[in-house]
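ok so I'm stuck.
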Amino acid sequence: MSAETDLHTVRDFLRYAISRFNAAGLSYGHGTTRALDEAAFIILEALHLPVDELEPWLDARLTGGERARLARLIDERCRTRTPAAYLLGRTYIRGVPFRSDTRAIVPRSFIGELMAGHLFGGEGFSLVPEPEAVGRVLDLCTGSGCLAILAAMLFENAEVDAVDLSPDALALAAENVALHQMEGRVRLHQGDLFAPLGGQRYDLIITNPPYVDAEACAALPAEYRHEPMLAFDGGPDGLDIVRRILKEAPRHLARDGGLICEIGTGREILEAEYPDLPFLWLDTEDSEGEVFWLSVGDFAAAR
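replied:
not stuck anymore, here's the structure
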């Protein structure tokens, strides 16, 4: 059988891709969590169709060139275990597109999901009741720049600083800033956490730092090994960089400011190590106890 010649519709390639992915035992976690969603993303993005609308296209017949491209992508995904976002050079967070390649980890964060929800300016309980009043935002460990750009979209009056240690990641972030025409509002800084910022203070600090512990780093699936290890390595227990952020953040928070931080699975360690900090854990559809919020007042009360 040749996929390129024997398959003719989107439905054909969707079924074929799912079968291939299941047989290959692929790992997910770069924007999708199962074979069906991975196959749909690859097919729709490769065909320049809306990635959230599969049903209308299922019975569409494909050209010879389209069939050849899909067959190559499906084969490469199985053979090389390269994340789909790298194969296609593009991915999305809540419908917002970002360029993606091996200079930075594939854009993904539970914080992105939270920013699209009600916690920033929504009705009822809100971490930031008046998003329009936010004037300065900092995104630490920005990688591809995705969270900095999402923050600029959400907080329309804010200037956003984005910091990363990797010049390669910042080069990709610059491309994403340009893609979204945010050059006037998102400034990129190369350096180690707060080091390039002097004594500047922010209404909101966002960070999705490296937080994978040494044991988990050693056991990462092949897909994750295409990504820069610098973006994963959080030290022996995964929290080395988180500890540094907790130590330095109070000096960079403005009055009424707050910190939102993604940490993976280290909740019990943090709560035991910082018993006086009242971590507010923010759950999403796909996570529980992996993102916390602390206000500047929380830090002050814990001193």
